[in-house]
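Lab notebook page, bench 4
Experiment: in silico fold of construct C2
Operator: M.H.
Input chain length: 152 residues
Purpose: comparison with the prior construct
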Amino acid sequence: MEFENAILEYRLKKGSNEFEPIYYYPDIDLGEILARRECEFFVKNGTTYKQLSSGIENQLFVIFVEIYEEEPPLEKIEMTKSTVSLEIRELNARKNHPLITMKHYNNHFDILSVIGSVYTYYDEKEWERDSAEIDEDRKTYILYVSSTGYEC
């Protein structure tokens, strides 16, 4: 099966086994679809959705979500298509998830390589993955990590 003209659709849980299409992305890059599927959270128009599962129906990739929390939407950020950004943040709600580092990559497969790993290393420290999110409002991926205490 080839996915040159892949399509992504987000479906919102409405009932016990009922889902409604809410966002549709025609002709999307396969790398972006795979990176999005690796994200437990999806933010769009101020609403954070939690991924429940994912599936594929011929050329249609589907991510099933439920509403996790709602806030007023942030001002839209315009970024170039040439790079994809990734924030790596410490999982610490009391400190508003402090930024460890921000990276820019050339494609979504590079993002997937990082957010799909259990362990990453920054500032000579080992960090363990908790979760990832795609924030469309801010045009960035976010990886939440916790320190393992191991130093390189």
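Observations: The CA atoms of residues 100 and 122 lie 8 Å apart. The helical segments are 30-37, 108-115.
Next step: discuss at group meeting.
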